[in-house]
Design a protein that fits this description.
Layout lengths: L4 H6 L3 E5 L3 H7 L3 E3 L2 H8 L5 H10 L3 H17 L6 E4 L8 H17 L7 E6 L2 H12 L4 E6 L2 H10 L3 E4 L2 H10 L11 H16 L4 E4 L5 H6 L5 E4 L1 H8 L24 H9 L2 H29 L2
């Protein structure tokens, strides 16, 4: 068995690169890769891409067209380096519009097809709002795989399982951030980390009820959170933390193990039940809204960059 923690982790969990950095993906050889508006912005700001971005911006019909063209071009490059899924996000601006999310998802899939990348390789990434989950349900029925992101609550996870989504991305670090702000003196190390506990609860619920939806822990603040979730279906990890794990030695204990379904799934949540339960969770309510705002902040920066390039 390999001694470094990253190699050991790969033996029990599918490791996903949380980046749009092509060189980082080449270095760490993950199975899948995820992107979001913030990561696409980072990739787009690289000097080596500026000329190509200008060509895309000037040939695009409008900014939405240019944004999707950039995301799909970077995603297509990534698809040549990973054997599994590439996640590409629908604009956060559409987080509360089911029909617009569906239209944008179809457009992304069509763009990928023109790059020679089939729908079986793509996860359409959507915020786990009620409207986003409804859109994902329809996309899955059409054979388009989805990744529900900005997931902070058990309620969101329940609704995603009901919808039959391919994969969820429950966040860890941002949950920890919220609790540390509320209780700065509390001990949130190791298994006391509320983000780790959230993912474990979702994982155990899914496995105990036989849901096929993949659980992919996301948004890590430190390697300890990752190690506490060793054995989770997937973990999406930043290049900095991938490097730390690759350079760390020791024995990695498996922390999550799938069990066979023990009980029947609960009745699906309807819209009123979902909205009430979600509203009762102050952390999840605040972090979802904040996450959408932050993604839009970076999307607007990318829009400004592309507008500048369109003007030449």
């Amino acid at each position: 068995m390999a001694d470094d923690l990253l190699s050991q982790l790969k033996e029990m969990t599918t490791v996903v690169a949380d980046t749009g950095d092509i060189e980082a993906i080449r270095r760490f050889q993950p199975s899948d890769a995820t992107t979001n508006p913030s990561l696409i912005l980072q990739a787009a700001q690289q000097d080596a891409r500026r000329q190509r971005l200008g060509e895309i911006a000037r040939s695009a019909i409008d900014l939405d067209d240019a944004l999707d063209a950039v995301a799909v071009e970077i995603g297509s490059e990534i698809s040549e380096l990973v054997p599994g899924y590439v996640s590409t996000e629908v604009s956060a601006r559409l987080s509360f519009d089911t029909d617009a999310t569906l239209a944008r998802a179809h457009s992304l899939i069509e763009r990928y097809a023109r790059h020679g990348v089939g729908p079986e390789r793509i996860l359409i990434k959507v915020a786990a709002t009620w409207e986003g989950i409804r859109a994902a349900r329809q996309l899955e029925r059409e054979g388009i795989h989805t990744n529900l992101t900005l997931l902070f609550s058990f309620t969101q996870a329940q609704a995603c399982a009901d919808a039959g989504v391919t994969l969820i991305s429950p966040f860890v670090g941002r949950i920890l951030d919220w609790h540390k702000a509320q209780q700065p003196e509390a001990d949130f190390s190791g298994d006391n980390d509320p983000g780790v506990r959230s993912v474990k609860r979702i994982y155990e619920h899914y496995k105990g009820h036989g849901y096929q939806t993949i659980v992919m822990g996301a948004s890590f603040r430190n390697s300890g959170e990752i190690l506490a979730l060793a054995g989770c279906d997937r973990l999406t990890i930043s290049p900095a933390l991938l490097a730390e794990l690759a350079e760390s030695q020791g024995h990695l204990e498996r922390r999550l193990t799938p069990q066979g379904a023990e009980t029947r799934p609960p009745e699906p949540l309807d819209e009123a039940e979902f909205r009430w339960a979600f509203n009762e969770d102050a952390m999840a309510t605040e972090k979802l809204a904040e996450g959408i705002r932050k993604f839009m902040e970076d999307q607007r920066k990318l829009e400004s960059l592309l507008s500048e390039l369109r003007r030449g």
